[in-house]
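Q: Start with the shorter request: fold the first protein.
A: Done. Sequence, then structure:
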Amino acid sequence: MIFLPESIERILERIEEAYKRDIKKRIAYSKKWNRYAGTDSAKVQLEFFEEFKSSLESGTSKLLVCEEGKEDEAKICLMNAVFKWFEPLVMEDIYRIRNDVYIQRGLKKRIEALSKKNKTKEEALCLLGFLNNAYASSWGQGDELYQIRDFRLVESEEEFETILKKYSDAEDLTASEGLVNFTTIRVALVPVDSMAIYQKKGIYEEYKRFGIEHLADQNIDDALKMFDLWHDVRETAIYYIYAPK
């Protein structure tokens, strides 16, 4: 038998929330995803999902039952069964289910204050747009796949420069010209990839053994995706933002 990790419990809760939002908005799901058409289709979908979720939480679902030694295969099947409930949802909802955004207290207020000044209005509004839509957006192609975005306030340019020197893979996102010319606010990206997370969680050796065991699998990609899901490994983008008072 297999057991639900916290990562799947979190996803189940968020799927349920997404369906309930759609019911309030009176959104009708396509008949492709639900045999019931019309304005009640989201409500019917929610009822089916709640049965599914309840069976997992109570331990009565057949998806949790497996032969000894077949746990990994069962986990992949469970993962795919959970992800199938994404199908009637729009991408914005899926991003909100799978991703997390953390914004340090006081950061947004600082940027909003700069948006009211003529000199910094354009760059501040650009950054606010990113912060407000960070679940589903990215600064560019280099950071578009990160599932966690962590925005942190930097109090001085000296501290900002120290961060750039401290992390070898740090990138000054505001150094190059773009649609908006940043002259005051500065943003540095420090990525935290899967390997760093494995090491921090103390599961690097386990990950290597798992990869070797499943190297010949036809569904090796699903196996690695399942490993990350069960250990809640999500690559993270940390944005250090210098925004003067």
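Q: Next, the second protein, separately.
A: Sequence, then structure:
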Amino acid sequence: MRYQRRNTPWLIMLGLMVLLALTASVAPLAPLFQVGVVAALLVAVAGSFTGGIRRIQPRAVQRVAQSPLTIMRMSPAAREATDRARRLGGLTPPGISVMDVGLITSASTPEGMVMRRSRAISLDDDGARPYLTINVAPEAAERQTVVRFEIIDQNGDTQYVHEMKTYLRDGDMNLLADTHLPLSGNSKLTGAGDWDLRVSLDGITLGMLSFTASPSIRERQRMLRGEDAVERLQTVDEVDDSPVSLNDLMQSSKRRGS
């Protein structure tokens, strides 16, 4: 906390006025009013220290202003997710800016594994892996945090939770979940619709992003053919849940023009 010297002249004037009011022999002030005058002086002194006023303000107004350049670099998904989190009472930690958030889906094709960034998933895909890109200011860096990813289905049921420890460094950071949510053949997924991705840092919600989950085409075809649940389970392909590095996923996505 630093004292702001430019406030010294008016603090001196205010102090003299309070002193004269308290020591005046004519029409002395009521004790309650005297206490109020002294309290006002103390508040003015506290406000002359950097950070003093911020500490006594409500949490809702303790937000660090983002630079215009940072706001311009935010993806539309990041703006939507952070705005929704704020409407629900979330508070972005000082020095942390969400630049992008979303899902990377993987699907097996005759040409091999295809990965793409998307806000729409299909239950025919092999899996979906959440990611987060943040910008860390120098004052918020050099510390360890816990990032939490959650995927919530159309019924409000949590289908995916993953937490991982992350050491924050100055600048942009790409954070990718170590595991993915299996989609194809996942019997826990009861249907499609509007789902949510929630991302938190040290228990504070950074963003909430809605996305669309479309039903499995193969499942609908099996239902039309009249196959029972046992036959469907016997024909389900196994999902590979092996970890994939962030660099590999990002480079693969960029090469395909995602």
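Q: Describe the second briefly.
A: Residues 82 and 130 are 16 Å apart (CA to CA). The chain has eight helices and ten strands.
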